[in-house]
Design brief:
Layout: E1 7-8, E2 40-45, E3 51-56, H1 61-76, H2 82-89, H3 96-106, H4 111-129, H5 139-151, H6 156-175, H7 201-210, H8 216-224, H9 229-232, H10 237-241, E4 246-249, E5 252-254, E6 257-259, E7 268-271, H11 274-287, H12 293-301, H13 326-342, H14 354-366, H15 371-378, H16 383-390, H17 406-410, H18 426-435
Helix pairs in contact: 3-4, 4-6, 7-8, 7-13, 8-11, 8-14, 14-15, 15-16
Amino acid sequence: MAKEEPYDRWHKSRPKKGEPECPDHPGLVPSAEHGCANRWQARWRDKDGRQRSKNFPLNRKQVAAAYQRGQRSAVDEAREPLPHRLQRRKAHAPTISEYVETFLGRHEVRQSTINVYRSRLQAHVVPALGQRPVGAVKRGEYRDFFTELRLNGMAPNTRIAVKGALSVMLSMAVEDGYLDSNPVLGIRLVQGSSRATRLTWRCVVALAEEIYPRYELLTWYGSLQALRSMEAVAVRRSDMEDVPGWQTVVEQRQEGEAVPLKTPASMASLPVGSFLLDKYRAHMERWRAPLPSQVLRVRERRGLAPYPQEYDHLVTVTKYRTPVRECSLCYAFNLAKKKVRARGIALPQETTFHDLRHFVDAVLIASGLEPRKVQARMRHARLSETLDTYGYLVWEVDWEYAPASFEELYGIPAPPGLPEAALVPRAERERSSGRR
């Protein structure tokens, strides 16, 4: 089998015995070309058996290896190697704006990922480079494009996200023969600081109190069951009622439609505490009870369309009895944040609904729960994700502001070593609050 590693022009592949080692690279013998700009050489043989090669710069070893693999595969599969495909298509290369649509239509990933790529490419790349042919934009111009984004105030992590979407698209352009190699690979951007939003029980309880009452249950799904926002709005009656004391997570909602969960590991059954069950029953009684016949007759007299019935199985819906969309929940959550901050509670300005999920992980880890049990609650595929992703969030939990005891909140026995405040039942807290 041919070696897939690109040839190193700086060093001899078969040095003679006794030749001096390279002072910069111990164990290797320098060649006559040592120090040249294009260190790596991709080698392959064409269909006639003639040796072909192409050189790549010092920092492009992986690109050279990928190019070499592609050339050899093309010959083995009786396809024309990349330079010929490129030469044939250069005159018909689409613009970046046109190729964005081609890329979005062909890239096979989750629809939510396609939507993210679409927003990043169309909002930032197309306005700046959309009219240029795909193969006409050079590496330095892409570097200038990222610099311009920084000068316009774009956050470092957002720039990295834009670069990631652009790089995936350009990799497809390489496969289609419009590019010789991906010009974005190897461009390094400054990493932003990790966002460490630290919530407390006081913040979480205040958010649940200030958000639209119709959406209060969603807040508790996020802060107790660690559900993502679109998983919370997708909870069905059967998920809460089929197995007493347990909640199943089987789907999420995107643009109002039921779609698969983020990963296979996201599908799980979670224990439900008595606190959340009480909130669920109160929510169903207030917001999901059958509408009085008088209300239905008034709507009919006014010529209004009847409420849709296909969403009756959902626990949380809008006032129009339709699925809650992400923009609506985000709007309600941001309004609740303003009200909480107006009460003088130190809620971080950058808090999002997803931080409620982080809060669950942080509280369970800080409480001393076994890591595997935390992983099961978070529905992570790997334990390292549970510990590494949220390890920075561990702090002293303000259990005195919790709405109930640990067991009532999470539906599992409290781990040993918790403070007394974490063991106080909800009824006793309410009596104490009434006395004050």
